[in-house]
Design brief:
Layout (H helix, E strand, L loop, with lengths): L2 H8 L14 H6 L6 H28 L3 H10 L4 H21 L3 H9 L6 H11 L4 H24 L3 H32 L10 H11 L9
């Protein structure tokens, strides 16, 4: 296992396209649900335990070597919002480009060929982690961190929130992030024998509704 590879994959400067997406924070800011560090923390905590948990388990399962086509179908079933499905595949396609250039591997090539329009991002993330020599726990941690790191960074741009405050939010969430990643890894291990139904399907209806509304905005700063 390469800890350096984990840092590269989790680095916000890795060209995976995440900087163009707010993880629902833009819509939440406009609705007034995020307006300071405390409300950002509440939003991120909710996202971590729903969308973050689901993504982390899918990524962990893909890193374990479960069939990515089956996992992609499972991701589709867990993403009721068409706007979020589109965003997940767009992010998956961008991550695939970066991953193939960074860690060339037959598994990545096969996934790219099977999903030319992009597989769901957590599935691509897990296969990328596997190509980089990382394990399911590493993939789960990256996915869980992305679920809160993206909104925190976006809120700095959207509200002019102090970056130190945003970093403090992420630091306070760190123990919960570790717990979510561990739960996701355990679910992925069960999925090896029980199939994808063993993976979490935590729902976040308000994120889904907000994503659909956000997609119709004529002017927006973030793609999702």
């Amino acid at each position: 296992m390469s800890r350096a590879a984990l840092l590269v994959l989790a680095d916000g400067r890795f060209p995976a396209g995440g900087h163009a997406h707010s993880g629902g924070a833009e819509a939440a800011c406009k609705a007034g649900r995020i307006h300071d560090a405390a409300t950002l923390e509440d939003f991120c905590r909710g996202r971590l335990h729903t969308a973050g948990l689901t993504a982390a388990a899918l990524a962990a399962a893909a890193a374990l070597g479960l069939d990515p086509a089956v996992l992609d179908a499972a991701a589709d079933a867990r993403t009721p919002s068409p706007a979020l499905r589109t965003a997940a595949r767009r992010l998956g396609r961008q991550l695939m480009r970066a991953a193939r250039a960074t860690w060339p591997a037959a598994e990545l090539e096969a996934l790219a060929e099977a999903f030319p329009r992009g597989a769901h991002q957590p599935v691509v993330l897990g296969v990328t982690a596997r190509a980089a020599g990382l394990g399911p726990g590493d993939a789960a941690h990256v996915a869980a961190y992305e679920s809160v790191g993206g909104p925190a960074t976006a809120t700095v741009r959207l509200l002019g929130l102090d970056p130190f405050e945003a970093s403090g939010v992420l630091a306070r969430l760190a123990p919960e992030l570790d717990a979510v990643a561990a739960r996701a890894e355990r679910a992925a291990l069960r999925a090896r024998s029980q199939g994808p139904d063993a993976l979490p399907a935590a729902s976040s209806p308000l994120l889904d509704i907000s994503a659909e509304n956000h997609a119709d905005w004529p002017v927006r700063l973030f793609a999702s």
